[in-house]
Design goal:
It is built from 14 helices and twelve strands. The protein folds into three domains: 220 residues; 86 residues, no CATH class; 35 residues, no CATH class. The protein has 356 residues and is of the alpha/beta class. Strand 4 and strand 5 form a beta hairpin.
Length: 356
């Protein structure tokens, strides 16, 4: 059943007035959020990405250990996705050193770390880098505290460090029971809470369930801020299960895990892929124990979540991933189906969420 939503203001979408486009907040991390943002920036200029900062592996982990800063990698990737900078600048940010003590390190990560030293705080450094890249919207770390993830498995064992969770889960041979943050009770970024409170539409996912999505809900105030809004809140379901995190999980299993960490009532809808996985890619994935995430409509309905099914797979890709264009089209269709279409003067159609 379609729901109508109320907002405290009447925001309108107009291609000729980007300042009036819908305020969309997307929470996540990793390649899933980066991919989503590439499409969304063509739909709205009022876009806020709230990014997890708990990665402790690879080049991000090295900088965390050396400089005691939040993980810069996912932040940098999201800024690149929203960047309007020249191609040379984007290429420079993606450059990784191949020799010496900086081998494997991304120049974009180093630039953010340097700006952190100049600015004096990580969120100010992120803001400064956004100015350099002239990005569409804004990118915010969910917290500037230097946090780590700890996983508790169903057999009672634990492991500390995001980069160790997948391998430990496979070794233990059981599901993850819960994720916690060390040190506990980190401070949420105030701008992130404000963006959620002012949003017209809130999205979470796609992305690694326990290491990209759940960490947001463990930051005090974030889950409550999401739940208190009176706007559509969509969970963007993963296409495939993930080795070391969600083997055998259905869509409702993902949502139950999110609710067990953030409380009930976080989402009003779930966007799920309806297109078949190409045979060649499907066979390659199944050989690795990775399978399509199955929707369970009856369970989702019992949870009060509307299931939205659309073809979302990127065509002609050499790996299984969402199409940024198809994701954005499905999100736009959903949002505009819940709004009133008006034609002021000769302007293009605009869409408003009416006040109840």
């Amino acid at each position: 059943m379609k729901q109508r939503y109320a907002l405290t203001s009447t925001r309108m979408l107009s291609p000729t007035h980007p300042e009036l486009s819908p305020r969309i907040v997307a929470l996540g991390g990793g390649h899933g959020l980066h991919n989503l943002l590439r499409g969304l920036k063509s739909y709205t200029k009022n876009l806020t990405a709230i990014v997890t900062v708990s990665d402790d592996g690879g080049s991000s982990g090295m900088l965390r250990r050396e400089l005691s800063i939040p993980a810069p990698g996912d932040i940098r990737n999201c800024m690149q996705a929203l960047s309007n900078a020249e191609p040379l600048m984007r290429e420079l940010l993606e450059y990784r050193f191949s020799d010496g003590s900086l081998r494997g390190q991304s120049f974009g990560n180093l630039l953010l770390a340097a700006l952190n030293g100049i600015a004096g705080s990580f969120d100010e450094a992120v803001s400064m880098m956004q100015q350099v890249l002239a990005i569409t919207g804004q990118v915010l770390p969910v917290t500037v505290d230097n946090i780590q993830l700890e996983a508790l498995f169903e057999n009672g064992s634990r492991v500390l460090g995001e980069s160790k969770i997948a391998a430990a889960k496979i070794q233990q041979g059981c599901r993850i029971q819960s994720i916690s943050i060390q040190p506990p009770n980190p401070e949420p970024l105030s701008q992130a809470l404000s963006a959620i409170a002012q949003a017209d539409l809130i999205l979470m996912g796609p992305g690694s369930l326990y290491t990209s999505l759940v960490p947001h809900l463990l930051i005090p105030g974030i889950a409550d801020a999401i739940r208190k809004t009176k706007v559509p809140r969509i969970y963007l379901a993963n296409l495939m299960t993930e080795a070391g995190e969600t083997e055998g999980y259905t869509v409702s299993d993902h949502l139950r895990a999110l609710y067990s960490h953030g409380g009930e009532g976080l989402f009003t809808a779930c966007l799920q892929n309806s297109a078949p996985i190409p045979d060649v890619l499907s066979q390659e994935a199944e050989a690795k124990g990775i399978f399509p995430v199955q929707a369970d409509p009856a369970i989702l309905a019992s949870m009060g979540i509307e299931l939205l099914e659309h073809p979302l797979i990127a065509p002609y890709a050499d790996h299984i991933c969402h199409s940024p264009i198809l994701l954005t089209q499905a999100i736009q269709e959903f949002y505009e189906s819940r709004t009133i279409k008006v034609f002021p003067s000769r302007a293009a159609p605009r869409y408003i969420l009416e006040r109840e």
